[in-house]
């Protein structure tokens, strides 16, 4: 995989991506771990759904992160999050690395919501997922002192590398075939159409690819998954949405490139 053979992973052995929230570790944690307390604006909290880690170089960090997580519910989640949204394992990995003075690279480009814009405010969208930047392109910028988190005008944003499709998940046996598949006019719609600049960073129609794979799985393995055995019509539901949206020539398609 290209990420494992490129900077910043090859020189650091640990790459993480940002969450929406600030890093809110308590000062007492840094006292316990015997390290200086950084500014809360040094980097964002971590979104641990994606992470690159080298086990040969960062075994000790992983062991310490495991320790933080074992005692997390009673101690470390409160110390590292102080009640912030999404408290859990997400911040244990970078804090373990910094406590052991091991190298890491935290992607600086901010995470961006994807969704559908609301009819009552053209600057607000109903969340249906979010995107994370290409760490190689992000590193190419920051290694030259170009930090878009400080000044958006210094460079174009890195391309999107990951889409976190979590609201809804692409599981027709859960909430995928729910209300978010209907636009505000009541008609079938795409999940991801906004913001426009984030859509252009995708480079291709990622949502269509998601639905292609979902339809393939739902229509060939509908009776295979244990959690789907009590469900019915999953293939029909996915296929109906596909036809209504991706085979509809009258439905506006977002622009996926500059």
TrEMBL record:
Family indicated by similarity: Belongs to the MNN1/MNT family.
Q: Name one GO molecular function term.
A: alpha-1,2-mannosyltransferase activity
Family annotation (InterPro entries): Alpha_mannosyltransferase (IPR022751)
Biological process terms from the Gene Ontology for this record are: mannan biosynthetic process
Major location, coarse class? Golgi
Cellular compartments per GO CC: Golgi membrane
Tell me one Pfam family matched here.
Mannosyl_trans3
| Metabolic or biological pathway | Protein modification; protein glycosylation
Q: Where in the cell is it found?
A: Golgi apparatus membrane
Give the organism, scientific name. Aspergillus pseudotamarii
- Highest taxon listed in the record's lineage: Eukaryota
The protein's name in its UniProt record? Mannosyltransferase putative-domain-containing protein
For this UniProt record, the keywords arranged alphabetically read as follows: Glycosyltransferase, Golgi apparatus, Membrane, Signal-anchor, Transferase, Transmembrane, Transmembrane helix
The way it spans or sits in the membrane comes to:
Single-pass type II membrane protein
